[in-house]
Design a protein that fits this description.
The protein has 405 residues and is α/β, with parallel strands linked by helices. 39% of the residues lie in helices and 15% in strands. Strand 8, helix 11 and strand 9 form a beta-alpha-beta unit.
Length: 405
Amino acid sequence: MNVVLLLLIRMALSANILYIVPLGSPSHVIWNRALAVSLNDKGHNVTMVTHTEEKQKIKNFHTILLEGFYEKKYEAHSLESLSKRDAFSNIKARYDYSFYSCVHDLETEGFKTLLNYPKDFNFALIIFDITNEGCLYPLIQRFNNPPVVAVTTFLLSPALAHVFGNPMQAAYFPFYSTKHTDRMIFVERMKNFLLIHFEILYRRYISLPAELKLAKQYFGENIRDFEEVERNMSLLICNYDPLLSFPLALAPNIVPAGGLHIEPVKPLPVDLKKIVEDAQEGLVIFALGSYFRSDQLSITKRTAILDAFAKLPQTVLWKFESEITDLPKNVFVRKWLPQNDLLGNCKTKLLITHGGALSTQEAMYHGVPVIVVPFFIDQHANGEKLADRRMGKVRSSTIPCTVKI
């Protein structure tokens, strides 16, 4: 009888949750998926809208795929062009990318599946990654305006902090795409102030209106203004880590959850386990994240990197997305690496990374020194934070290869 009662209570407390992740980035999906799976483990029925196909079947966890995004190539983002942009043009590039993603997602079969749900179908809660793509906000109205919790994997940008009423602290909190610390000189504080307010104004008067106009073509003219939608969001959970980032006062409706995606270390696959066990002098991991493909490096760059690795006494594991020959005997390549599990191994001595938020958080959690080779947006800032705390060093990136997404 007690067992039946407990089961009935569990059923009563279970919620039907829609989790929308429109940002087309495999690494950012990892962070959101960790939260979604945790909710599922608590007994909730979770439907996740994403660009990333779910590889394992989980009870009461469903995926609606915004298909075809990763097969496309966003020509505006090459590493050469990214390295030449200043902080202002990077803001425009970020929101251009958001609009580009909207154009794709609103034409997918996954989006049509959402529109074809019964008109009276209700979710108890919608969790929405609002980093990009406000064009999908009308899905909230489509499902009869349930409570909404916003999340962002992109640390905590000033524009989103502003949406949730946080004061702008331009004098001591550096903009996410600069190399500044919290000890800025007057000129740096002036630039910081201009960048913060430029992004807020660009998002409000250029980016969101353009996405609203596009969304009306698919949802109809009667959708709510996007600023009104955001005013009705109850909470923002952000991938901000006060241990890595600089001090920042937060409003009570902004909850920092930096490193949410980090899991306990799992056993390595058999082939990697053998490599690690044989690494008598320790292990170096080289991975450029999910955007930047090492296999698009020029032959000259590859040769220079391999020549440098050959001089190391350590074993090197390189995330390299295709076949490569003539490797030094201490270098091994894999198309995919379980980075968190490798960083948690006591033999790992160094991580060479592009400086993405998730990678830097994992390295800090496991106490692994880092060399950051940043390319754009927040990667420069992440590298400088590590250097400021003497957990890593930053090296300039001038690698001429394209970004395939």
